[in-house]
Amino acid sequence: HFNAYSFELESLICQFARYHEASRLVSSHRWGPIQLSQQDDVHYAIEMERLEKLTIPSAGEYVAILDRVIEMMAAITELHAMTIPVRCFPPELVRDLSLAREIPITRAYHYDLSPDQFMYRPSLDDSPGKVVLIDFNSSRMAHAEYDNFFWYMIPGKNYYQPPERRRL
Fold it and tell me: Do residues 166 and 152 touch, judged by C-beta distance below 8 A?
């Protein structure tokens, strides 16, 4: 179930990133099931723009490190600022329809951020490139119900896991 929800949420957020003209979130071209010729089962994929690896400043380059952190925070802020209609989320995550009527708009929150979820979008002209957030894997809506959602199913890295998982 988690993989299906994760894919649906990531593709949904990609669609709304395009709608909100989010410049610091990865752009997607297509999403959905694909059949790979060498495998029998169907896989779900999101085709995204071509980006470059994000270089990390060297230790002691304090201005470059601060600049990189600010760029990452700008990308996260752009994600958290997007509004998404609750009715667009999978029904299993929004079972209380009265809640959806009371709060028709929600926001995505990313609880599992780490430096490897950012890449670099080079500029096509003379303007500077941008740091881009590429992964929304553990994004959740602000008013979702979690009474039967298992946080231990969320993949994560040490020190970059959501607070709910660290308390288990």
Answer: no
pLDDT at 24: 94
Residue 142: CB partners within 8 Å, gap ≥ 6? Answer: 106, 107, 109
Q: 24: which 2 tokens?
A: 């610091």
Interacting residues of 68 by C-beta distance below 8 A, sequence separation 6+: 54, 56, 57, 131
Number of Cβ atoms within 10 Å of the Cβ of 167: 7
Tokens of 89: 């989320």
Q: In which residue ranges of the chain is pLDDT below 50?
A: 1-2, 142-149, 151-152
Please say whether the beta carbons of 151 and 166 come within 8 A: no
Look at residue 159 in the predicted model and tell me its pLDDT: 55
pLDDT value, residue 1: 45
Cα→Cα distances 2→31, 89, 147, 155, Å: 17, 14, 15, 10
pTM (2 d.p.): 0.72
- Residue reference for tokens 């231990």: 152
Strand order in the sheet with 118-121: 52-53, 118-121, 130-133
DSSP state of 32: E
- pLDDT at position 4 is 60
Helix ranges (DSSP H) in 20-156: 62-81, 97-102
